[in-house]
TrEMBL record:
Subcellular location: Cell envelope
Pfam families, per the entry: SBP_bac_3
Identification of the protein by name: Transporter substrate-binding domain-containing protein
Membrane-crossing segments per the record: none
Taxonomic lineage of the native organism: Bacteria, Bacillati, Bacillota, Bacilli, Lactobacillales
Presence of the UniProt keyword Methyltransferase in the record: no
Keyword Disulfide bond among UniProt keywords: no
Superkingdom of origin: Bacteria
Length: 223
């Protein structure tokens, strides 16, 4: 996990890791009877670190996608949040399709960069969410496509920001759900993690974690 991506994984004022993914990892570890060791890693290095076996699993709001499923294994989905377009109030962008011909700040390895480029924007590569927002704020990009929950936390911490978020229809930014991601050969680990997740859902723990950080239950897809 990144450790810099609220509300999924970030530091408290005392320096401790917290967030949805941190709590999920701890609860999965309890169910499996193991101690979880966190390895904070920059977003653009997360996948490479997993492939190099620097850690066994990624919990970092990793969206499930057909392309990733060809290379990796996923546990059960535990969070479903949509995407938004973050831009300045006076940017002229009123809906997601308005990013055509604009510059968007995105990580080079995420799903959002694919959505942005498909809509005709030019990517300004950044390591993660914090840098993406800063790039829009300083005028080096017109917008960034990103997670609605992450934006909500940012907005709460920066109430006077000139940035706004524009919700996007799911046909442009699909709500695919996020799940723990593992290497393709980690069959036994995948089975154990998925079993633990099913128990956490049944026990209501997954719902409580979502409500703790998002004030609502996003542990199930919207009906």
């Amino acid at each position: 996990m990144e450790g810099t991506y609220a509300p999924y994984s970030y530091r408290t004022d005392s320096g401790d890791l917290t967030g949805i993914d941190v709590d999920m990892a701890k609860e999965i570890g309890k169910k499996m009877g193991i101690k979880v060791v966190f390895v904070p890693t920059k977003w653009d290095s997360l996948v490479a670190g997993l492939q190099d076996h620097k850690y066994d699993i990624i919990l970092n709001d990793m969206a499930v996608s057909p392309a990733r499923m060809k290379v990796f294994r996923y546990g059960a989905k535990y969070i479903y949040t949509g995407g938004v377009v973050v831009t300045k109030k006076d940017s002229g962008i009123k809906q997601v399709t308005d990013i055509k011909g604009k510059k968007t700040a995105q990580s080079a390895i995420g799903n959002y960069v694919k959505y942005a480029e498909k809509l005709g924007s030019t990517n300004v590569a950044v390591p993660g969410f914090a840098e993406a927002v800063a790039t829009v704020e300083n005028g080096h990009a017109d917008a960034t496509l990103n997670d609605a929950a992450a934006w909500g936390v940012y907005k709460k911490a920066h109430p006077d920001t000139d940035l706004i978020a524009i919700p996007s229809p799911s046909k442009y930014m699909p709500v695919t759900g996020a799940a723990p991601m593992m290497n393709k050969k980690a069959v036994a680990l995948d089975k154990a993690v998925t079993k633990a997740e099913h128990e956490l859902r049944k026990d209501g723990v997954m719902k409580k974690i979502s409500e703790k950080y998002l004030d609502a239950d996003y542990s199930n897809p919207a009906k």
